[in-house]
Amino acid sequence: MIGEFTGTPQGFRAEVDGHDRRLLDRLLGEILTVLDEPSELTSLVRATTGFESSRPEPESPALDNLLPPMSEDPPEAAELRALTEDFLRAEKSARLRRVRRDLRSAHRDTGGVVVVPPCSVWDWLAALNDLRQALAGELGIEDAADAERVWDQAHDEDADARLGLASGLYVAVTWWQDSLLRAVRSGVPEH
Q: How far apart are CA 170 and CA 167, in angstroms?
């Protein structure tokens, strides 16, 4: 079970049971693996051989959602990707690692209660959004009709088990992100 976030004087609190924490941990690990894959030219090689002037779109649907093109013009998009992709990958990876550490720490230190301090809430919201975007890419979500299809798959007992699990994770992460955002909007109560 993933519990709803509520505001406390220390930050935003939610409960995460062991099963769901392990699923989230595994998902975070898989996305980190995809994000941390080195480009064909590492920063050291680029520094010694000149700057990379263009980079192709990723072939993974999850990665394509995490690092979408910044222009509708393919050559311009490739140039912008070469300039920004490494930075974006590092930023996203750092946020995902923080959430993973916080979830592991919550399990180890508080028996499944995670408290997101106000100074970390935007990292959490961005990381949860990255989880959603990666899942959306894998599930083929491009519009509201696709999202509704995934919602139905998550609640269909006859659906393929893997597809049902991925759909359920997408629905759960979406709900959890919304829960954290609602808690932030409500604010942190005074002591």
A: 5
